[in-house]
């Protein structure tokens, strides 16, 4: 990894020193550093002096259809360009069906969670004050959860939530100016698996990048883990995983495997799973 | 004197009053600001970027409710749900129609009085025969 990073760093430093912004298309899946500016595909041609003739033609041909590009985590809008704010690999996703432009984001690694609206997280109830619960989600401040935000909860029929319980919920309000707010129902009023997580089990913390890797649709780790023995896992986007199996030993094995699989190569992982499957 | 004023002079007076009032209003002496249409939308959520699976998982039947949820939530993303539901019908539509047909007869028999049971005689196959016309009182002829 070290020589690749050194190369990437030198290339990035050149562009920063030179002051020229690079085209986002050419930098896909490469390491980008904070402070770099990236050009979107429409603007690249405009900057090249040789393409002046082409540019004129295109303008005369009709309105240049500007598509809406979404800049995701790790990127900010800076005039007409994208400004990188986190170091990592630049990724791009093609537009799905109709909604034009596609999504650019930086695949970075961090342990500290910043609340984001719509994320499903695991929280620990720390206090019960009047009508709201204070939930610790690993961010800068505790989130608040109203007792009415559970499925089938009314003023008379309060949910059975105690201090120290684990809650799986999603954010409705999460910005840097306000205290984050969570709910355990979706917009239709159904729980959809959210609410208090049951008894027993083990909660442990991992990096945010690992959670996203494990929740990817084609994740081999989860498929292999599922073949070992009956178990239940809950992933929170704030870096917390809760696991439960039939015996304590199985639960601990599972927790260790999930924590360690971040730094293992796929061969090492297969060896370990083979050994576990035997025993 | 107000009485002697014509309509014209009245109008002029009104206009002058309006002028004075509008001149006293404050306004900003700035050039027109054009609204910049931004083609870049900022989102801080990873949900748009990557198709992530649903966060609760259960394997090998440990928690059947969660396994049902898994199928539901993950297929919502992939939109294959419609096909699966069509195949999983327990009872076909034809069977339901047949059952309902016979059901009307059997329930009707329960509430019919003894005399009306004759109307619900069964055929050889066990199907209910169509009910005959009710027997009315026949006045005896002389």
Automatic annotation (TrEMBL), chain A:
Gene3D superfamilies: 2.40.50.100, K Homology domain, type 1 (3.30.1370.10), Nucleic acid-binding proteins (2.40.50.140). It is found in: Cytoplasm; Nucleus, Nucleolus. Residues 201-248 form the K Homology domain. Keywords: Acetylation, Cytoplasm, Exosome, Isopeptide bond, Nucleus, RNA-binding, rRNA processing, Ubl conjugation. It holds the Pfam family KH_6. GO terms for cellular component: cytoplasmic exosome (RNase complex); nuclear exosome (RNase complex); nucleolus. Belongs to the RRP40 family. This is Exosome complex component RRP40. It comes from Carlito syrichta.
Automatic annotation (TrEMBL), chain B:
Signal peptide: none annotated. GO terms for biological process: maturation of 5.8S rRNA. Residues 131-142 have a biased composition (Basic residues). It holds the Pfam family MPP6. Residues 118-142 are annotated as: Disordered. This is M-phase phosphoprotein 6 isoform X2. It comes from Carlito syrichta. The gene is MPHOSPH6.
């Amino acid at each position: 990894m070290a020589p690749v990073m050194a190369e990437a760093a030198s290339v990035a430093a050149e562009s920063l020193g030179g002051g020229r912004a690079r085209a986002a298309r050419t930098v896909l899946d490469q390491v980008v550093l904070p402070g770099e500016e990236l050009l979107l595909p429409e603007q690249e041609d405009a900057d090249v002096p040789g393409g002046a003739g082409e540019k004129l033609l295109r303008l005369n041909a009709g309105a240049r259809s500007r598509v809406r590009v979404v800049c995701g985590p790790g990127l900010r809008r800076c005039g007409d360009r994208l400004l990188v704010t986190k170091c990592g690999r630049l990724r791009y996703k093609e537009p799905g069906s109709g909604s034009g432009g596609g999504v650019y984001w930086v695949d970075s690694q961090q342990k500290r969670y910043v609340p984001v609206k719509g994320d499903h997280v695991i929280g620990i109830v720390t206090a019960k004050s009047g009508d709201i619960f204070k939930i610790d989600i690993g961010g800068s401040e505790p989130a608040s959860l109203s007792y009415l935000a559970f499925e089938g909860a009314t003023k008379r029929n309060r949910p059975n939530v105690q201090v120290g319980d684990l809650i799986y919920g999603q954010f409705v309000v999460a910005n840097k100016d306000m205290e984050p707010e969570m709910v355990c129902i979706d917009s239709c009023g159904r729980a959809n698996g959210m609410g208090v997580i049951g008894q027993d089990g083990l909660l442990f913390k991992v990096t945010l990048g690992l959670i996203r890797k494990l929740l990817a649709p084609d994740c081999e780790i989860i498929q292999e883990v599922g073949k070992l023995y009956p178990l239940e896992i809950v992933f929170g986007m704030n870096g917390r995983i809760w696991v439960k199996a039939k015996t304590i030993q199985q639960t601990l094995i599972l927790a260790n495997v999930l924590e360690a699989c971040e730094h293992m190569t796929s061969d090492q992982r297969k060896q370990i799973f083979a050994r576990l499957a035997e025993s | 004197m107000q009485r002697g004023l014509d309509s014209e002079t009245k109008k002029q007076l009104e206009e002058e009053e309006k002028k004075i009032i509008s001149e006293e209003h404050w306004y900003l002496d700035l050039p027109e600001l054009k609204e910049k249409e931004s083609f870049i939308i900022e989102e801080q959520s990873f949900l748009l970027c990557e198709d992530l699976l649903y966060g609760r998982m259960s394997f090998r039947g440990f928690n059947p409710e969660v396994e049902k949820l898994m199928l539901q939530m993950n297929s919502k993303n992939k939109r294959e749900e419609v096909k699966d539901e069509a195949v999983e019908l327990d009872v076909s539509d034809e069977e339901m129609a047949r059952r309902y047909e016979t059901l009307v007869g059997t329930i009707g028999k329960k509430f019919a009085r003894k005399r009306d049971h004759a109307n619900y005689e069964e055929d050889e196959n066990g199907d209910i025969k169509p009910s005959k016309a009710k027997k009315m009182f026949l006045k005896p002829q002389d």
